[in-house]
Amino acid sequence: MYVCVCKAVTDKQIKIAIDKGACTRKQLYQCTGAGDVCGKCTRHIRQILDDNLRSPPIMQAA
Fold first, then answer.
1. What gap in Å lies between CA 57 and CA 3, rounded to an integer?
2. CA 14 remoteness from chain centre
């Protein structure tokens, strides 16, 4: 689902950036560009960030 329509950033792209180490909204902006134009998505970005930092990463079998 698109989180940032202005920059066409999806929730999956945000989660990937978090998995790669982004742990602040500023870092997510630097990785994805989300939240830069109108700001309507910042609340949703914060929620995704908080949810993903609270839950432990899921390890996938090789």
1. 21
2. 3
Task: State the pTM of this model.
Answer: 0.79
Summarize pLDDT for 13-61 with one digit per residue, the tens: 999 999 999 999 999 999 999 998 999 999 999 999 999 887 665 655 5
Whether 28 contacts 17, CB under 8 Å: yes
* Domains, the chain, with CATH or none: 2-54 (1.10.10.1100)
Rg of the chain in Å (alpha carbons): 11
What is the C-alpha separation between 27 and 58, in angstroms, rounded? 22
Give dist(CA 61, CA 34) in Å, integer.
31
